[in-house]
Amino acid sequence: MSVGAMPMNGRKEDAAEVIKRKQEHLDMSLLPEVRGGNTGLEAVRLPYDAMFEVSDEALDTSVTMAGVELAFPLMFGAMTGGTPLATPFNTCLRGLAARHRVAMCLGSIRAVLCDEGLLSTYGSGAVEALFANIGAEQIGQIEHNHLSRVCERLGVRGLFIHLNGLQEWVQPEGWRHFSVSYDALAHFVDRCDVPVYIKEVGNGIGGKCASRLASLNIAGIETASVGGTSWVKVEARRGGGLSRESIESLSSLGYNLVESLSSCRRALGQRTLIASGGISTPLDIVKALSLGADLVAMAQPLYRWYREDGAEMLARRIDEYLEVSRLIWRSTGARDLKHLHERQGDG
Ligand SMILES: Cc1cc2nc3c(=O)[nH]c(=O)nc-3n(C[C@H](O)[C@H](O)[C@H](O)COP(=O)(O)O)c2cc1C
Question: Which of 5, 43, 162, 252 would disulfide-bridge 12, Cβ 3.0–4.6 Å?
Answer without folding.
Answer: 5
